[in-house]
């Protein structure tokens, strides 16, 4: 849980939001956001989902056994291992999804 709340805090800071602003937009108190980020409370899933929504994120449960492969995939920009980079390479899955969302 700690890693998830750390990621939410990083996203909040990267987005230039204060704890107060996140709390207001998520329908929470500033104290709740502060206590979640500091690890003082174990938040409900619905609270985490609402915080993520405000931050433009989507939570995705991933089995622990698949996490290393998923992280490698994301770090590679959505390219399969061994896939060539450069002009002749097909677009990465991640890039294709990013282009579609624009």
Automatic annotation (TrEMBL):
Q: Which CDD domains match?
A: HTH_XRE
What residue stretches are annotated with the HTH cro/C1-type domain?
8-59
Q: Which SUPFAM superfamilies match?
A: lambda repressor-like DNA-binding domains (SSF47413)
Give the molecular function GO annotations: DNA binding
Extract the ranges annotated as region (Disordered).
Answer: 82-102
Q: Name one Pfam family in it.
A: HTH_3
Q: What is this protein called?
A: Transcriptional regulator with XRE-family HTH domain
Q: Which organism is it from?
A: Variovorax boronicumulans
């Amino acid at each position: 849980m700690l890693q998830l709340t750390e990621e939410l805090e990083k996203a909040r800071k990267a987005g230039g939001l204060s704890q107060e602003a996140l709390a207001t937009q998520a329908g929470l108190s500033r104290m709740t956001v502060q206590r979640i980020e500091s690890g003082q409370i174990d938040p409900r899933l619905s609270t985490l989902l609402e915080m993520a929504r405000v931050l433009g994120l989507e939570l995705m449960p991933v089995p622990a056994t698949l996490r290393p492969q998923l992280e490698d995939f994301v770090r590679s920009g959505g390219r399969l291992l061994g896939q060539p980079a450069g002009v002749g390479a097909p677009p990465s899955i991640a890039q294709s999804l990013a282009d579609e969302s624009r």
